[in-house]
């Protein structure tokens, strides 16, 4: 049975989607959710799904608590699903090609510190992009710079608002992220 640590800072809709995907396919996995925010809605989703979850704050992260906890959990894969902190370099070094992230744009465009959620979609509109999408990539010690695993695209029309783009991107995330995770676990 595979151990998957899901990291999220907010709503946790991708985390829930991933868990439901694996459960619907009867693929047995141990999931564990870690968030850096005490009020993150992902904690409510974890309760509803009966998945263990915990808060490890940014300060605790800096003190090595996250590293210790990850080592205790012995994950086969660490999945950043809306986790907004830079992932610690020491964990990246210990788990090469075992930490992945999803980004709501076609990297290398619109990546880096501060480029998440609506900020990305607003930038896509401001730059009059004709397409956007998602990038699933390995995590490195820098924001959004790890090797690309998978990308999916969606068209952007001139009337699209950032919210329209967010909805298109979410559809791609929900469709592809669990499948890529399943493939990585099987490889």
Structure in words:
The protein is of the alpha/beta class and 187 residues long. It has one domain: Formyl transferase, N-terminal domain (Rossmann fold). Helix content is 40%, strand content 22%. The protein has seven helices and seven strands, in the order βαβαβααβαβαββα. It has helices spanning 13-24, 42-49, 58-62, 65-73, 89-94, 117-126, 162-186; strands at residues 2-8, 29-35, 53-55, 77-80, 99-103, 131-138, 148-155. The chain has a seven-stranded mixed sheet with strand order 3-2-1-4-5-6-7, with helices on one face. β4 (77-80), α5 (89-94) and β5 (99-103) form a beta-alpha-beta unit. The longest helix is centred in the C-terminal third of the chain and has 25 residues, at 162-186. It is globular. The mean pLDDT is 95.
Strand order of the largest sheet: 3-2-1-4-5-6-7
The SSE order reads EHEHEHHEHEHEEH
- Number of E-type strands: 7
In CATH terms, the superfamily is Formyl transferase, N-terminal domain
InterPro entries: Formyl_transf_N, Formyl_transf_N_sf, GART, GART_AS
Pathway: Purine metabolism; IMP biosynthesis via de novo pathway; N(2)-formyl-N(1)-(5-phospho-D-ribosyl)glycinamide from N(1)-(5-phospho-D-ribosyl)glycinamide (10-formyl THF route): step 1/1
Binding site for N(1)-(5-phospho-beta-D-ribosyl)glycinamide: 12-14
EC number: 2.1.2.2
